[in-house]
Amino acid sequence: MDLGIQGKTALVLGGSQGLGEAIAEKLAAEGANLVLVARNTDALEANAKRLSETYGITASGMTVDLSDADATAAFATRVREEIKPDMLVANAGGPPPSVSTGIDQAVWQRSAQMLLFSIIQVTEAAVDAMKAKKWGRVLAIGSSGVIQPIPNLAVSNTIRGAVAGFCKTLAAEVAGDGITVNMILPGKIDTARVGQLDTARAGREGKSLEQVRAEIAASLPIKRYGNPEEFASVAAFLMSEPAGYVTGQMTRVDGGMIRSL
Ligand SMILES: NC(=O)c1ccc[n+]([C@@H]2O[C@H](COP(=O)([O-])OP(=O)(O)OC[C@H]3O[C@@H](n4cnc5c(N)ncnc54)[C@H](OP(=O)(O)O)[C@@H]3O)[C@@H](O)[C@H]2O)c1
């Protein structure tokens, strides 16, 4: 299927590794040009070089710490005035694991800045550019925890619910401008982030990492972790031209992990 995004510009937050990197590669394979954003300059530059050489697209990296409000405000201005993306992958790192109480206020604030306020600010800037073109795609990476809160991920569960409210509200407001706004909800996709959470759980439960991973895989209907490429395939479709009538949705890519309808 032709995704109809050749020559369009995708701004991929969290594009240095993991799910963001995998989505960037899928979009590049469809001929989209890329601007990759994260903190790790070396990883961004390496990804931009590899993807531009492999797929014949233009790709660049921009170093931005999305937990820094001032840096994000300056970046949002560049998004609106220079980058003017056709597509946005709204993504960043995951907050530290914790139960709901006893969390340092600084953790709440830093996490909310990165995952909510910065995402809102960058999305608004991107959508302004998309409105002028009467075409756009926003895809926010959430979590299965939006629907079924995950034990010991209180900060993530809390903030991502707010992102879901923002995306659903925005979707209705910009649908008439040819812009879709959707969320994609990973379950257990095998990335560095999931590896860190599994390691933390192994420590809490006094088990080996292998044992914890085997238990998690066995608990999933599909009996295995997902890989970033299969997650990214769904993401790329949701950002495509043929998906133009899909908006305001949350799509689960979780191997059946969430049991509710
Ligand atoms: N993998 C899953 O199955 C899963 C499940 C549920 C939810 N999620 C969520 O989905 C998102 C992506 O997951 P992932 O597995 O790809 O995680 P990951 O491998 O940790 O990647 C996170 C990305 O965000 C960037 N990032 C982190 N902090 C940042 C900051 N302050 N400013 C700018 N960029 C920042 C990282 O790059 P730098 O370190 O270079 O900044 C990296 O590119 C995360 O929010 C995660 O919690 C993932």
What this model shows, in words?
- The relative contact order is 0.15.
- This protein has a seven-stranded parallel β-sheet with strand order 3-2-1-4-5-6-7, sandwiched between helices.
- The chain has eight helices and seven strands; from the N terminus they run βαβαβαβαβαβαααβ.
- The chain is globular and about 55 Å long.
- By secondary structure, it is of the alpha/beta class.
- The model has no long low-confidence stretch (mean pLDDT 98).
- The protein has two domains: 205 residues, NAD(P)-binding Rossmann-like Domain (Rossmann fold, 3-Layer(aba) Sandwich); 36 residues, no CATH class.
- Helix 5 links the parallel strand 5 and strand 6.
- Helix 1 runs parallel beside helix 2, helix 3 packs parallel to helix 4 and helix 6 packs across helix 7.
- The chain binds NADP nicotinamide-adenine-dinucleotide phosphate.
- The site of NADP nicotinamide-adenine-dinucleotide phosphate has 28 residues, from helix 1 and helix 6.
CATH superfamily caption of the largest domain = NAD(P)-binding Rossmann-like Domain
Strand residues, percent: 5-15%
The general outline is: globular
Helix content range of the residues, please?
Answer: 40-55%
Global structural class: alpha/beta
**What molecules are bound to this protein?**
NADP nicotinamide-adenine-dinucleotide phosphate
Number of helical stretches of at least 4 residues: 8
Can you tell me the residue ranges where pLDDT is under 50 for at least 5 consecutive residues? none
And the CATH topology of the largest domain? Rossmann fold
Total number of domains: 2
Q: Terminal Cα separation, in Å?
A: 29 Å
What is the N-to-C succession of helices and strands?
A: EHEHEHEHEHEHHHE
Number of strands: 7
Strand order of the largest sheet: 3-2-1-4-5-6-7
Q: What about the largest sheet? A: 7 strands, parallel
Radius of gyration over all CA atoms, rounded: 18 Å
CATH C-level label of the largest domain: Alpha Beta
Second-tier CATH architecture of the largest domain: 3-Layer(aba) Sandwich
Q: Mean pLDDT score, rounded?
A: 98
